[in-house]
Amino acid sequence: MNPRAEFLRAIVLLAGLAAGCGWLSSKSTLTVHLRCDGTISGTLSVAALPADGQPVDEQSYDLGAVCGAGELEFASYRSEGNLRFALARPDGEQVTLTAEYGRDVQRDQDGFYTVLRLTNAPPFIANDRI
Amino acid sequence: MALTASIIQKKLAAASWTLRDNVAQDIINGATTAELKNLDAEGVLRLYEALGLSGGWYSSRDSSAMKRLATESQFQPVKNTPDFGVGLVKRAAPGANIQTQLSAGLVTRIYAAEKKRLSVLEKVGFDGSTVGRGQLGQPAYNDVKSPRHFKAPLEECMTRVILAKALSKHARPGAVLGFDMTTYKLRVTEHYSNVWRDPVLEDFVVAAYLAIRIRAATKSGRSAKDTARFAVALYHGMRKMVVAAQNTTGDTVNWKPVEAELKSQGHTDAVAYVNEVVR
Asked: Checking phi first, is residue B137 left (phi over 0); if not, alpha (psi -120 to 50) or beta?
């Protein structure tokens, strides 16, 4: 077999493997822009929220780190879907928040994004807008 | 009894395939002006199809009936664009900021500002991910055609544009691109590449996307004019620089501090874009 045919075969094989492993799934990366009011501690979890209401693909972030960066990237976002945020504070308080696509979650040419405001006073976490 | 798509369907179905154009002629010639004006897309399409696709040939009587259908149906060519698209969007989006800030002028100023900033390649037709006078791409169109945003008015706009084009030819018609001729319903195209070359459709999509951006920029304490400025900035792809400027200034409501920060960071053309569009 000539090298060109072998190369094409490898491409086809890789595409098949990628599809089989779900690499070509509909997941997208979503940017969460964070507005942290002062020093915020705790853990922020982000999960995709399918129509059945059960959060999936949850990822957790240390707030000290992500507040410093001003944003985090959630790689398991389902296109045009909703999100559930869960904030675990050092004092044991747990707060959850839903972000709805089209209202809180938006899309532009650079991808999907949402804005969160985090504070040390209730409600501790809220959807915000640019 | 008023002329409806259902009546037309029954009358056409009762005739043999070869005589359906004659039946369509009779329906059109026997209808009042008001009946033709009130006929919906399905009714018009059934008559259009019967005149052109049944019978042995497209006769002068078929052509004459087609002319009357074209002249008197509600699906007339849109001449007042972008006002037509802006009107459809505003009718579907009652928010105060959309009502006061969205206008035909805003749409045409977007075109002017984008035109000034086209790259050399874009000027000669080599488009990137964004296309047309409004320089929008597939993601923006996906939002516009979504049921949560402007699906219904987009369908209304497309129906008007596509049917007006089909009827205006008067020549023997074929299948109407964009319609399912088995159900006589519009099939909204998935791809913006099939949309943006029509000026009326592009005007609608640009107006609708501006409305989405205005809605997303609306927040407590922000003036209507500043809402339009943030909306236009994000339309222009300035999200990351605007967020960075807001973080630096600590002001997440007003445009002026953001504008000053953007200028200090050297984003003078981006600021100029916003000021050219929002007046």
From this structure: beta
Mutate to test the interface with B, among A109, A112, A116, A118 (most CBs of B within 10 A): A109
Q: Give B20-35 pLDDT, tens digit per residue.
A: 999 999 999 999 999 9
Query: Are residues A109 and B240, on separate chains, in Cβ contact within 8 Å?
Result: no
Global pTM value: 0.89
The CATH number that domain A25-128 falls under is: 2.60.40.2890
CA distance A35 to A126: 10
User: Which pair of tokens denotes residue A26?
Assistant: 């509909």
- Residue-range domain boundaries for chain B: 5-74
A102 has pLDDT over 90:
yes
Contact with chain A for residue B242, Cβ under 8 A? yes
More confident residue, B182 or B201: B201
What is the tens place of the pLDDT at every residue in A28-76?
999 999 999 989 999 999 999 988 889 999 999 999 999 999 999 999 9
Residue B95: burial class (beta carbons within 10 Å; 0-12, 13-18, 19+): middle
- CB within 8 Å: B148 and A102: yes
CB contact under 8 A, A109 and B243: no
Task: Identify which of B34, B23, B94, B33 has the alpha carbon closest to the alpha carbon of residue B61.
Answer: B23
Which candidate from B143, B149, B234 shows the least CB-CB separation from A130?
Answer: B234
**CB within 8 Å: B142 and A108:** no
Distance between first and last Cα of chain B: 52
CB B241 within 8 A of CB A110: no
Restricting to A residues 96-115, those with a Cβ less than 8 Å away from any Cβ of B are 101-102, 106-110, 113, 115
Q: Spell out where chain B has E strands.
A: 179-180, 185-186
Give the closest of A70, A106, A110 to B216, CB-based.
Answer: A106
Mutate: best of B243, B247, B258, partner A, most A CBs <10 A: B243
pLDDT tens, position by position, B46-85 = 999 999 866 667 889 999 999 999 999 999 999 999 999 9
